[in-house]
Design brief:
This protein has about 425 residues and is of the alpha/beta class. About 40% of the residues lie in helices and about 20% in strands.
């Protein structure tokens, strides 16, 4: 065999090997999973609320994989437990990117945890879907907020209580856990109440630590405040398992919901199951309740019951918000043809689904949803009867018009604004 034949033979072998390697790489690429980060407390004071959201994401991943995954790839969960500690949230968020290489994260409940991870998502250009009501005053290009802003929960709830239908409340106890969400929400509500002519003497504000359990003295104060001749209500931004002890003390002291109603912003159907007593007649404001009668909700509840295999059909607002965020993200990935964060973010604007609430919800360019507002009353079975709801979805406004500095700000991540809270467009020459 001459050298030319040997050379041609060697080249042919090399070509076959290269083609084989290409085929192997292509096959491996098809086998690669898309990793989904789940960043929720599975222990500590917030586990009572957050643990079920981990399972909600797992349910949605399983459902998507049954449909073939996304872009021909299966989805794989990457679960961490930040244990109700904001510092641990930050640590675990960074590891989800550095070690797990996740494409997206679904997580956080408290604003303290969200604030802790926000710089990491912005630094690493990650994407977080945050599924819980919050205090507003924020819009990050790396977070999609699928829970309520104050104008979709806090303000409508107080407006309802001030109305004839809501009991014409004139005195207010602003009661919350001592961290950013309750404090900022109460600052907004105080400004709103002042605009409506409520005297500072008719507002009492109380904060307690996470996990607080000694409620006797505080309930005594609430009863005394409500006995001075004006219809009084409690606006509760208590979070986590402290709610269990609070409602137990209300029952122990026979606080009548008709006399002093409690309007909760962080208590849903699942939290009520942990209380041990049913606080009949007290209220909550959300964008969804388990008892909503819609075809979409029936499908959602069956999906949840089938997944947990225990016949547990109890759902709540943050579960629905997680469902909305996951489905919109999946739609955006398909539309973009990639999990690349910049491409998915652009595809998220205008995403819409028919939600379990029965309403079509839409993602706006301020990274917040248009959603319905609902007020529920606790019945004897420990669920909520919807006693009021908005006619149409309400567009979330992250910057509150009742705060002078915030009223000037706009959140819009499209041209020419391209900002989360500026007073004029970032781009001037357009």
């Amino acid at each position: 065999m001459n050298s030319a034949s040997l050379s041609r033979g060697t080249m042919l072998v090399m070509l076959v090997l290269q083609l084989s390697l290409v085929g192997i790489r292509a096959a491996r690429a098809g086998e690669e999973t898309i990793k989904i980060g789940i960043l929720h407390s599975l222990s500590g004071t917030m586990a009572i609320s957050e643990a079920v959201l981990k399972d909600t994401v797992l349910m949605l991943i399983e459902d998507q994989n049954k449909k073939g995954g996304l872009l021909g790839r299966k989805l794989e969960p990457a679960i961490v437990d930040p244990a109700s500690d904001p510092d641990m949230f930050a640590k675990e968020a960074r590891e989800l990117f550095s070690k797990e290489k996740v494409a997206v994260v679904f997580g956080c409940w408290t604003s303290a945890s969200r604030k802790a991870v926000l710089p990491i998502f912005e630094q690493l250009n990650g994407l977080l879907f945050y599924p819980v009501q919050y205090e507003g005053e924020e819009s990050s290009r790396n977070i999609f907020y699928t829970g309520a802003a104050p104008n979709q929960q806090a303000i409508p709830a107080v407006r309802y209580l001030m109305s004839k239908e809501g009991g014409e409340v004139r005195r207010w106890v602003l009661l919350g856990t001592d961290y950013v969400y309750p404090r900022t929400t109460n600052r907004i509500l105080s400004a709103y109440l002042a605009e409506k002519g409520v005297s500072p003497d008719d507002i009492m504000t109380i904060y307690t630590p996470f996990g607080y359990s000694e409620w006797r003295g505080i309930v005594d104060r609430i009863k005394a405040f409500g006995s001075e001749g004006k219809k009084t209500a409690v606006i509760s931004t208590i979070n986590g398992d402290a709610n269990t002890y609070f409602y137990m003390e209300l029952a122990a002291q026979h606080v009548d919901a008709n006399e002093i109603p409690v309007m909760a912003f962080s208590v849903g159907e699942r939290e009520l199951h942990s209380v041990g007593v049913v606080p009949v007649g007290h209220l909550a404001a959300w964008n969804y309740f388990h008892t909503v009668n819609s075809p979409e909700n029936k499908v959602f509840m069956k999906m949840w019951a089938d997944f947990n295999e225990q016949g547990d059909k109890i759902t709540n607002d943050p579960m629905e918000a997680t469902f909305i965020g996951f489905r919109m993200w999946a739609q955006a990935v398909v539309q973009a043809g990639t999990t690349d964060v910049d491409a998915v973010r652009q595809a998220m604007y205008g995403q819409r689904i028919k939600a379990p609430s029965g309403f079509e919800v839409v993602m706006n360019t301020n990274h917040h949803l248009s959603k319905p507002v609902m007020i529920g009353k606790i019945n004897s079975s420990g669920t909520f009867d919807v006693i009021w709801q908005s006619i149409n979805p309400v567009r979330a406004e992250p910057w509150e018009r009742y705060l002078p500095d915030s009223a000037k700000r706009t959140a819009d991540w499209t041209f020419p604004w391209v900002c989360g809270g500026c007073i004029e467009p970032t781009f001037h020459d357009w």
